[in-house]
Amino acid sequence: MPTTALPLPKKVVLAFSGGLDTSVILKWLQQTYGCEVVTFTADLGQGEELEPARAKAQLLGVKEIFIEDLRDEFVADYVFPMMRANALYEGQYLLGTSIARPLIAKKQIEIARAVGADAVSHGATGKGNDQVRFELGYYALAPDIRIIAPWREWDLTSREALIAFAEAHQIPVAKDKRGESPFSTDANLLHTSSEGKVLEDPWDEVPDYVYSRTGSPEDAPATPQYITIDFERGDPVAVDGEGFGPAALLAKLNDLGRLHGIGRLDLVENRFVGMKSRGMYETPGGTILHAAHRGIESITLDRGAAHLKDALMPQYAELIYNGFWFAPEREMLQAAIDHSQAKVSGTVRLKLYKGRADVVGRKSPHSLYSAKVVTFEDDAGAYDQRDAEGFIKLNALRLRLLGRRDQGMGQ
Description:
Blueprint lengths: L10 E5 L4 H14 L2 E8 L7 H9 L5 E5 L1 H14 L16 H15 L3 E3 L8 H12 L4 E3 L10 H10 L15 E4 L4 E4 L29 E8 L2 E5 L2 E2 L2 H14 L4 E7 L5 E7 L1 H17 L2 H20 L5 H13 L5 E8 L2 E8 L7 H4 L12 H20 L5
Parallel strand pairs: 1-2, 1-4, 2-3, 4-5
Antiparallel strand pairs: 6-7, 7-12, 8-9, 8-13, 9-10, 11-12, 13-14
Helix pairs in contact: 1-6, 3-7, 4-5, 7-8, 9-10
């Protein structure tokens, strides 16, 4: 039971997937607070039929049901800006779950205002990162909003308790193909993540049945596939010369990645709340896009800009992972990153083969690569190698002075 002394909320907007957790939460909110519940289901390209979520909400007596197609907004305004930064959390994770949360929070607050709700609620547990991501988003956009986080209030402390609650209240419970309640998954157009159950021991290899988004690299085609991706100002706009909108382009790359077994990651990461967790991530299209974007930057970004971006990237990635998308420091970094992309246009050619996406060609009208300067052959005076001597001596000056001092040679 809630311990708050605040007045009971009258109307709550719940982020609702239609799965076990949020279905139980919906009923629990109705019973515990006696409030009206409004459901919001975001279509972020998770690849599931969303009408069952509507039917589940109707079954539980919900009168105001929002299901919104946010796929293009998700990719254009969240995934692509993150990709411009080449963001990887702890050097590996492409932040597929993290980047979806600020958009869900934003839409939830918009709906709360539209329907006159005085509270919002989510299904994130008290052990995870998502509670932080959702609630930082809520507070950034609606500083005085009331937040109800059932996992931090109720006494349903296990998956078995949730199932028992659902059965007691005639809430349908989905079963996986092994007849068990599913391990935890989260999916959107960028990725699918899996956690818990068979994945909790980090020594055990991920079972094949856990993978849903990618084929096995071992079973991928024996012949490589070559593709091209065109970029304009850091964003992909075409695959193999064919233009696509943001969501359709990422979906196209997902199909290619699935075929070639690209984008699997078995990771033990450091959660923001302090514990380590093991997750399995599948990010097929995002993995291809990440490689391609670095490829086009390699010939269009100046060394100083490229190295500064690489230095800033871990901080930028951590801000997204920890839920600070709407924080001023993320926006400041985004402005710098976006400024760097003004000339990041051109075409990258990739080789897709058995789990790998390798850049094998790149070209751009804004390329800084000069074959005339870099050649090992006669450069016809484009570069005077004698200049290197003074360059080296100036850079070595402090090292020579240190060496003389430390070897007792005097100055």
